[in-house]
Amino acid sequence: METILSLKNLDKKFGSVHAVNNLSFDIEKGNVYGILGPNGSGKSTTLGIILNVVNKTSGSFSWFDGSISTHEALKRVGAIIERPNFYPYMTAVQNLKLICKIKDVPYNKIDEKLKLVNLFERKDSKFKTYSLGMKQRLAIASALLNDPEILILDEPTNGLDPQGIHEIRKIIKEIASTGTTILLASHLLDEVEKVCTHVVVIRNGIKLYAGPVNGITATNGYFELNVDSDAKLLVSALEKHPSISDIKQEDDKFIATLENELSATEINNYLFKNGIVLSHLVKRMPSLEQQFLTLTNNN
Ligand SMILES: Nc1ncnc2c1ncn2[C@@H]1O[C@H](COP(=O)(O)OP(=O)(O)OP(=O)(O)O)[C@@H](O)[C@H]1O
């Protein structure tokens, strides 16, 4: 695995606000990473630091194994961290030609990138005639002009309608399928779930989880159960079972969280042997949303 970016104990304080708190994680080549957290959790500040537009307070980050300076490394990075800004009376192609000059990229990249973001048909329309979604797609095309190794996006679907959101997510997946590494910040769990392979969950600048998206749900699940008879007997039997770590009552049923793998048949047999006949038994896995809420609320 080739490491594109490595953050080590990164810290940022704005006066008394601890925006980024001892944050460490690695970005490996070819994956799609989401930094997921509620508003104000430090996502934009983190992106700002790694892109050299925000000064860190302490800690470190290194691009491409630290073999080159951040200034050189950023030439291999495409990023959109602010609202896209182009010349309103110029067409998409005219705007991109300007970017090509700044980035020293040949003009023949323009058509290729406009096709990738589905704007080729509208390439000669003035920027001011574009919808918000089209403006965002043009920004993506612009960030891709120099064939960056990693594309960084801050809340890429903010403010878009469902169709616009769908298009942007589809394009992000297409870009990823060509081998470009992607790092995006989002407060939307479903966005990260749909688009990303890996996620760093942060709250108040603190990392709560970093790893594969499906790793958040890597638990043994829980049982929902109930009895028509004496509930105390049920709770006491569950408490004695070595595979059950927690029991709580929710509405009209009991929730028994599993510490180890245990099947519904096994728990049913165990309880029956203890004189308990269940009126309700379901084994469930927590949804990503439940896990995310548990992570962000309890820490
Ligand atoms: N320039 C600044 N001066 C002072 N405080 C700041 C500054 N930039 C960010 N902050 C504070 O740092 C914290 C993290 O903000 P940041 O914008 O990084 O969060 P975020 O997760 O990107 O949130 P959002 O999704 O709302 O943009 C917030 O409490 C914010 O108010």
From TrEMBL:
A Pfam family hit:
ABC_tran
Q: Which segments constitute the ABC transporter domain?
A: 5-229
Keyword Transport: yes or no?
yes
Spans traversing the lipid bilayer: none
From the Swiss-Prot or TrEMBL record, what is one GO molecular function term? ATP binding
Do you know which SMART domains this protein is assigned to? AAA
Alphabetically sorted, this entry's keywords are: ATP-binding, Nucleotide-binding, Transport
Report which superkingdom the organism of origin falls in. Answer: Bacteria
PROSITE patterns named in the record: ABC_TRANSPORTER_1, ABC_TRANSPORTER_2
User: Which protein family is it in?
Assistant: Belongs to the ABC transporter superfamily.
| Protein name per Swiss-Prot or TrEMBL | ATP-binding cassette domain-containing protein
Species, as recorded: Aureibaculum marinum
Lineage of producing organism: Bacteria, Pseudomonadati, Bacteroidota, Flavobacteriia, Flavobacteriales
